[in-house]
Request: fold
Amino acid sequence: MSDLADTEREVEALLFAAAGPLSDADLAKRLPEGADVAGAIAALQARYQGRGVELAAVAGRWRFQTAGDLAWLMTDEREEPRRLSRAAQETLAIIAYHQPVTRAEIEAVRGVQASKGTLDVLLELGLVRMRGRRRTPGRPITYGTTEAFLEHFGLASVGDLPGAAEMRAAGLLSLDLPADFAVPDPNAPAADEDPLDPGDAPEFHTDYLGEETA
Reply:
């Protein structure tokens, strides 16, 4: 076996075992003095040409990598359940029990200023919808739950939600609600609410990780 063949095997072993790409200098440090690193690299490139793994240069360093046309084999698609933050869960509960409800009303029940991202997440997931506009100054948007909300929580109707006493104890119901309070029908029109205008589609905030300001 020639010296070049030995160097080729040695370079191949080093690149295979390396945690990251190696430069010619990195390889030369580990090989016998006078080893033809460039010749070994050229021979390896020719040998791996058209194979499932190829020798590629990355920022002046060498590494073995999957052939570009086979990248689809390495793709693993799976659904990751998206967990709601505590703020989103509380906001969703308030909307479910007070709908139609405005953002200011949600903040009044929670006692903190709501992040725009929290409502955006619920809208994007389809758990909440923009219902209409309150007939009050500023005509604020009102929010309500959706059919997807019932499906997500396995409910036949919003009437199957936990009782008002439990939610009042958790601080998610207004304290001034009447004793005979019942969960509102999300499909029933409200007397003080107008339908949405055609241009009232939600505009999502891009930062979904922001927290409320106390």
User: Anything to note?
Assistant: The helical segments are 3-17, 24-30, 37-48, 86-98, 103-110, 116-124, 147-153, 164-169. The longest strand covers residues 128-134. Strands lie at 53-58, 61-66, 101-102, 128-134, 141-145, 193-195.
